[in-house]
User: Fold this.
Amino acid sequence: MQEAVPEANKPISLSQEVYIARPRWVMTLKTLVSNRSAMLGLFIIFFLLMVALFADFIAPYPYDKSMRDTPGYVASGGRLPERPPCIHALGCEDISEHYMGLDRNSRDQFSRIVYGTRISLTVGLVSVSIAILFGTLIGLFSGYAGGWFDDITMRFMDVLLAFPSLLLAIAIVTLREGANLENAMLAIGIVSVPVYARLVRSSVLSLKELEYITAERALGAGHLRIVFWHILPNALTPLIVQGTLGIGTAVIETAGLSFLGVGASEPIPEWGKMLSDARDLFQNAPHLVLFPGIAITITVLGFNLLGDGLRDVFDPRLRGK
Amino acid sequence: MSKFLLRRLILMLPVLFGIVLITFVIARSIPGEPCTAMYGEKATPAVCEALTIRLGLDKTIPEQFVVYITNALRGDLGESVQRGRPVTDILAERLPTTIELAGIALLFAIMFGVPLGIVAAYYRNSPIDVMTMIVANMGVSMPVFWLALMLKVLFSVTLKDTFLYLPPSGSLPAGYQTNIIPFYVSWGLATKETASPFLIFISRFNILNGFLTLNFDLVFQAGRYLILPAIAVGTIPLAIIARMTRSSLVDALNQDYIRTARAKGLKERVIVTRHGLRNAMLPVITIIGLNFGYLVSGAVLTETIFGLTGVGRTLFEAITARDYQVIQAVTLVVAFSFVFINLIVDLLYGFLDPRIRLS
Assistant:
């Protein structure tokens, strides 16, 4: 008969008792997946990316093709250039289907919205990258250095911030001699630099007084190491929130520039341009106003939801609560 | 505190100079001749030359700048090429509409944004939070001019025959303007002929004037016309304020001092308002200050849609007509007011956070 081993003397199973540290990114990913709004945002962005990538396959027509040239289209009763949505399953008798109707130049609005996804995603990413890159550098060094350097830089940022971004963007576009999408992107990027600079700076100001920075300095860490290794990571959270929000703002501001006639030019299917073309038709052809606006809103919403979710994930203080 | 204020005021001077300089450069750099923009086909070389001399555009750029600054210090912002009137007069006429619009929009944004954010933060991850944040996210995601157009479609076209109908454009019903008694007349300060420019300026704020003269019908009418534009302009700031309040308050409520406050047995209301909210307000106030730009861009984009004769619309028309003086003046006024709003924000920082005041 085997002798019973007392409970206390049993060997410990390592796999059960010892906490196995997982890599940080696994934890982050797990938190991200469990965050519903982030997932919804990610889903929307993924969806938009797919639409942008496969626009050629999704859009039934080229974005600049007028339906009035289509053989047999006039015979089918193409009376007005701008026509409401026409879907065969809902009893439309036209030769071709137009899920979102035709615009005033008789182009298929659905195709234009699909191709517009490419434009808006590009505009958002490029301009926010410009803004974050310069804004972060300025904010970090200005806040960390303090003194006259901080004063001068921030006063300059104040001057830039004092102008309504739309007006400054218009000015930059006109200074670059030409209303086109590249200038609009650049203008919106430059215009939002001060926002990031101030945001990063305000984080830096409170962070650099904290004990762990003093400790780090006492240990002999150099300024660059402190700035990029210890301050920047802790200043990232508001930057991420603002950056994701910024992509949305960039999309909206590009639309605003195009709405005022200093952004995208014909025949680029930029959503704001489409709204601008349709603004005086809102009573007779509300579909031309409705769909581009919905497209903008969904795009911006995707980035906002993701930003909110990322914020919760990246802030360790919120984790697991 | 007064030392802090003095330092901020001195630091403002270079900013104000920078604004004047940038404004000047921008206005001069807008491509296209004001002459052709103004006279169109009638722009003969002789006409254009006369105009150039009258505007001082034949002088060198530094000379023009010096003249501009000297005049501006005397309150003379030049003459509108497009309208042939002093720019100061145009601004005095049109600023009240925009200020009223922006003020109501901001009030709307703060009144709904901050409470929404508090509720969402306190009941974090509950259905209330999720719903609030979805609504806030929708709000921040809409282009202001699209929202304006859709509000017009909804309240002026779809709801035309219901009590919810709201006027699509203008600032007062037709013919109503003539019935308005300015407050200085009913207070016996001056007559319409003898009133000082300042009194006239104040009396152009329709809602304020309505309150001052106890004419509540005027308040109601002017309000009805301002609701749609104010909602359109205020929605983005509202959503941003709600998001910022939430995220900042969530941060604050996770701090140790909140746990201590709970352990002391304080009431939840006191914990949230006095310990949480007060510490969470700093980023919120920053974001409110930064939102001034949204209000102005919103005004530029919506005033034309709603037929309001404000500064935004003036600016839009001036850019189209290359009306340098007006562009300069509007930009200048907007930028200056932003600097002063920022100053107030900075002072509020010191008021809310003693650590900043002491440093």
Q: What stands out?
A: The longest helix of chain B spans residues 216-253.
